[in-house]
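Design job #97: recover the sequence.
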């Protein structure tokens, strides 16, 4: 797993906070945890509980799947009386989602976070984040809003133009129902056997194309993770080729210079 922090880029579809100090716009006031240097927020005259949302950064291209989105706000009261602060998230075209109650009376900045769970990449790229600020006769200030996205990264495969694969052989071992792949690595290199052998099992031998245990992208990644020597000598075979290899029985698929 990996994480990335998304920051505000604009005022969102709902921005009812009236307070702005130390910045040109409310979203800019909530970019960093700089205390009272810059902040936004709401006063009692705005309403008892006041919603403010921001448009957020898009995800990087390295994200394959989002597993969690946690919205964090850093806030304080300007008077030591209780107010409810609820981190909020809105998906494009959807309704606003709120955290549970988070009462604070702190006049120093405190951090309040809430996990909203998993979403698609498209949903995260179109979401807005912020908070509903309780006011209760006094003001609530917010100095930072951000979203922490936990994700599974896109697999990055090693590349090395100096190494060439001269042949690939895939063998199904019926006696223990495992798969073995051998790379033929040119005239001056030793052949390497896939460490998947003996680890990835399936009840039946495949007919044509990969479709079950022993044929997944995860298996390919395990192969690459089998050791530094293997990774260095397995540079130019994309996942699509791996699928083709696993769909064959014993004949090499590719000739010299692939």
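Job complete. Output follows.
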């Amino acid at each position: 797993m990996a994480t990335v922090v998304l920051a505000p880029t604009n005022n969102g579809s709902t921005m009812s906070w009236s307070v702005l100090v130390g910045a040109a716009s409310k979203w800019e006031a909530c970019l960093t945890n700089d205390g009272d240097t810059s902040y936004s927020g709401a006063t009692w005259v705005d309403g008892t509980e006041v919603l403010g949302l921001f448009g957020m950064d898009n995800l990087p291209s390295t994200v394959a799947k989002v597993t969690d989105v946690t919205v964090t706000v850093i806030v304080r009261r300007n008077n030591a009386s209780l107010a409810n602060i609820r981190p909020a998230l809105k998906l494009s075209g959807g309704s606003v989602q709120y955290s549970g109650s988070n009462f604070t009376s702190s006049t120093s900045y405190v951090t309040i976070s809430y996990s909203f769970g998993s979403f698609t990449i498209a949903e995260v790229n179109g979401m807005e984040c912020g908070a509903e600020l309780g006011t209760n006769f006094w003001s609530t200030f917010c100095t930072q809003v951000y979203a922490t996205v936990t994700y599974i990264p896109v697999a990055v495969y090693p590349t090395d133009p100096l190494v060439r694969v001269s042949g690939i052989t895939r063998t199904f071992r019926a006696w223990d129902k495992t798969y073995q792949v051998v790379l033929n690595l040119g005239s001056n290199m030793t052949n390497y056997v896939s460490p998947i052998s003996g680890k990835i099992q399936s009840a039946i031998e495949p007919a044509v194309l990969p479709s079950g245990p022993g044929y997944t992208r995860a298996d390919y990644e395990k192969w690459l993770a089998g050791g530094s020597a293997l990774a260095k000598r397995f540079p130019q075979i994309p996942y699509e080729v791996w699928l083709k290899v696993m769909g064959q029985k014993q004949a090499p698929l590719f000739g010299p210079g692939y």
